[in-house]
Structure formats: structure tokens, C-alpha cells
Amino acid sequence: MVQWAERYRRLSKESSNGGRFIASRVEVARGPMLWATEPGVSKITLMACTQLLKTTCIENIAGRFIHVEPCPILGVFPKDDAAETFSKDRLAPMIRDTRVLRDLFGDAKSRDSGATLTHKQFPGGHITLVGANSPTNLAMRPIRLLVCDEIDKYPLSAGGEGSPIDLAEERQAEFKANSLTVVACSPTIAGRSAIEASYDESDQRKPYVCCPHCAAWQSMEWEQVRFDKDEGGKIVTASARYECVSCEQPWTEAQRLVALRKIEWRQTASFTCCGENQVPEQWAPEAYGVRRALCRSCGCEAVPNDHAGGQASKLYAPKQTIKETVAKFARALRRGPEALRTFFNTQLARTWKEGADAPEWQDVYARRDDYLAGTVPAGTLILFAGADVQKDRIEVTVWGFGRNRERWLIEHRVLTGDTSRSEVWTELEAMFSETWEHASGSEMMVRDWGIDSSAFTAEVYAFVRSQAGRGNVHAIDGQDSYSGAFLGLGNKDSTAKGKKLRRGLKTVRVGASFAKQELMGCLGLQRPSGDAPFPAGFVHLPRDIPEDGVRQLTAEELVVSVSRGRTRREWVPIGGRRNEWLDCANYARGLAAMRGWDRWRETHWRGLEDALGIQRTTIAPAAEIATPAVAAGSLADRNLKRMAPRSRVRSRTR
To answer: Could you tell me which residue ranges the Phage terminase large subunit GpA ATPase domain spans (predicted)?
Structure first.
């Protein structure tokens, strides 16, 4: 691939490097171009900063296939106008200035059936450029080479028929043995970035350079960029430098440019071999622009290379100095979160986490309690339950609430069955009579049950009406509100004239956004050491809770965006996780707020403990507050004497 580009490719006069293509000008792009002919590679993911290597690699890969291995080629772009722009600004100049391509395409005019703006034929194949929003264009012809640019800007579904990339890859079925897919983009929002998801599925190659001081090979990361600040806390751009991760010696700009002349791409994805999980520490000699990871026990190539993925930031750009990169960072800091997001995406090739981040599910899973699901720990004084209704099941979670705003996950149960039929609802009704054994030996019932009514409204309303005699089964109406966990009751039944019925069905309005934000903060609390008391709001999880349950509890994050000057806060799923456990927790929290859990006083807590047979903890009387010593005749002394008679009068009045 590189040999073809350096021999035949001519950059257009519109380019900043017009003339013969020289790979060493941007050495970091050499590896990704070589991967296109690497044996075993069927997909290449390029998650890179802007103006570094993405488009150049796509152009050279397409040009080489057109000339050496002619075949059907499809280029997918966010919209049709983006495809037309690529054709006019990139493809046409490449064909015009590269003689071997110009000879293949000839002097075809736009009026010819074989040469239009977005569809061009050549001997042995054709290249078609389409927008990702059209399912028809994505499913017309079989193709061998698929190139997808700016995939984070694609719609989630092409005309309601599914992922545009998946639809396009289906067209490679006839060329399965030798097809190639290339996807490229700068990343966007963490958890919602398509290029990030694709890179995570790859062998995660990173470019390594050699330190000019200690000769240690390393991947250049933003964390190794250092700079000083002045007395006002502002970044001093002139002090910016890169420091070696091993010897911590700073590099001059000249030394960085020398280091960029020799780049080794290495696989960094973790793997399992010889019965142990490993992070790559040894690599095979370089071949096809990459060093394959080796198992430290058997020495074999342990990471598959069918999906090659590369990530590169502006730290590898020879035309942008470290000082210029730091200057852009300082400017982004001054301008706010939106500018910082752009800096991370376009300069560092990293995703951006916005708003309130959900805690890492691994951290939450690691701090589980010792009790088992289905049992009620001693601190629990009352139970509430939330139910989430799906088409083929009802998921129910029972939560326990106690003092200090602490809560315990008691049990999560999945009732399978078609929710349009009565069987699964009968199973849910049977749960209403169940009891859970408290640590004190008493049996506890759930105080209130809340069932989400947003998706299957008719079924939920009918079921709640049938349970009206119980008085503790409620239809939940979740709302995007930060005012509180409980927002009041909503009347749903009315007369023929539209007047609300006082004794009709009522829904419990739950502030879902408030509940999610509170839960994420509480899940982030750390377990205290030793016998120290738990922090207020601590969320206890049973020892046998499944990993998927913790994933679902932390399945959403708060994204803050600015559109037309207005700030929008939205909770969005992370990485396609399900969120039934989280929804059930929100419904139980809303019911607890409805019953007053947030404002209960000591008398109420003692009443709950008495009902469970829990022995009260003796509370030491408050120590008498001594009158502070003040100097005689001082202002404080006169104020104390002036207040004393008033206090005695108030006491006699009471």
C-alpha cells in the first residue's frame, strides 16, 4: 500500500503538500496503510484526531484497490451532500493528478452512465459514494471494499432498518473471503461514540516512539505533557513540553520530531492465553506495519488481527508543536466545556464525558455487602418495590430503606411472560402477599408497589384498578424533573364532560432525573474502613448480586449540551446497557419519598423499630452547654445580662 502510494500517488495542488506522496512526512500514517494488505485483516478502525491520517489512508486504500485489485467499492458518509463533497474535493482531484487512475477512468463526462458525481465506473469495478441516511443506497449492489468516514455523525438507524454500517457490511457477503472494511472518525461522547465502540472491539493498536534520552519505547499520551502556570493560575504556553514516561526527561521539539521518524504500531488489547488474563508486554518483530502481541508463557501471537484498530492524537503530528497543542488546551479551558470537548475529540482523539458521570460498575461491584439477596439486613426498617414492564416480562426490585438515608437492595426478580396476557400479572399479584425475613426474625411485607405505566399504559392501569382494595399498588408516571423524587399524584379518570374523578385512578409522579442523579452520587460513595459508620446515603448491595445487575444500576449518565444558547440536561444509556434495575430503583425511591422517608423524625423511626422488635439504642442526653466566659463590662457581658431577663419571661409564658 505504501509502495503504491509513493510510486503512483500525486497530491493535488489544493493540498498543503502538493506533489509526490511521501509517507515519511506523516510517519504515523504508514502503519494504517500497510494494514490494508496485512494477511488476516478484514476490518480497520481509525480513531484519530483531525487532519492527521484518516482521509489520506482512505484515499490511498481506495486508489490502490482501483488500480491493482479493481473491485466494487462503496464509500459511506453521514449524508448525501457529504458524499458529493468528498467526490468533488477529494476523489476527483486524486483521479485528476494520479496518472494511473486518470488513465483508468478516462475522460468520462457527467452525462455518461458510467461517470456521475457519486458513481464512477472503471475497468473491473466501480466506486459509489452514498449517504448513511438512505437504506436503499446501502443495500443496492455487492461490494468488496467498504470505506466509512465520520461514522459518529451517522444516524442510529438508516430509515428504521438498522445501523448503516451493518447494512453496508451485509453487501460484502459475496466477497467474504477477501473483503475489507475501513471505518474512520474522531471520537465524540463516551458511551455513544460509534468509533470508540469499534476501536474497543479491535486489537487496539497504538503508535510507540523511542525516548531520545533513555531509549524507552512508549505511546505518547496527554498525561505526559507538562506546563507551568503563572501566579494567576494561567497556563504558560512557552513552558509546554513532553516528558518521557520512564526517565521523566523533557523532550525538545527537535527531539520529538526525530522520535516521530520511527514509529512502531503495537497491539495493546488485553487477552487470555495459557489460562491467564494478560496485558501485552512482549511483541513480535514488526510486519505489515504492526508488532503483534505475544503470550508471556508460550510466546505465541495471542491477539487476533482480523480487526485492526489504531488511535493517534495530535502529539504525533509533525506540523503541530507541543506548545501549539497546549495553547489550544488553554484556550479551550477559558471557553468552557463545549470547547474542552472539541479539544479532547479533535486534538487528543479521546471521547468526552459530560455532566454527572455514573460510577464505574466495577468499583460499585467491588464494594458489595455480606448479606445475600432475599434477606433483609438489620438496618432496613421499611420496604418499597418498583416494577418495570416489558413486552415479554416484568422486572421487580424490592428495596429496603432505613436511617441515615441508607438503602439496601433486597431482591430483583424477573417474571417472564407476555404482558398482554393475565398469567404474568397473576404472578406479580402473588408477590404482593409475600414476606421477607428481617435480621431480627420478624417478617416484613412491602409497604408500597410501584409499576411503570409509560410503555404499557392500558395493561398497567387495568391491573392497578384491579388492586384498588389493597391501597398500596400504584401506577408510576416517571417524569424528567429535578424538583424531587416525588412530584405528587396525577388524576387519570374523568367524567364524560372531562371533569376529574376524585376517587378515580391516580398515578404517582416520580422525578426520574432527580432519582437517577441522587442514586449515581450515592453509588459513588466508598465503603468506610474498620468500624466507621457508613456515610449518609450509602447504597448497600448483596454479595450475590450479578454483574449485569450492577451494570444496569449504573447504565446511564447525565449529558449536558448547549443548543442555541440553551443548556439541555439528558440522561442517556452508556454503551447500550439495559436499565431495568435502574428504573425499578427510581420507582421505589419515589414511593419512599411519597411516604415521607426524607423527613421522618425519631419518633417514626422508633415506631418502625418497635414493629420489627428491634431494641432501641439508648441515646445519651445532650451535654449542658456552658455559658461562655466573657470579660466583665464588655459588650458581650452586657448582651448576656440584657438577654437573661427576657429568657426568664419567655420561660414563665410557656
So the answer is: 16-265
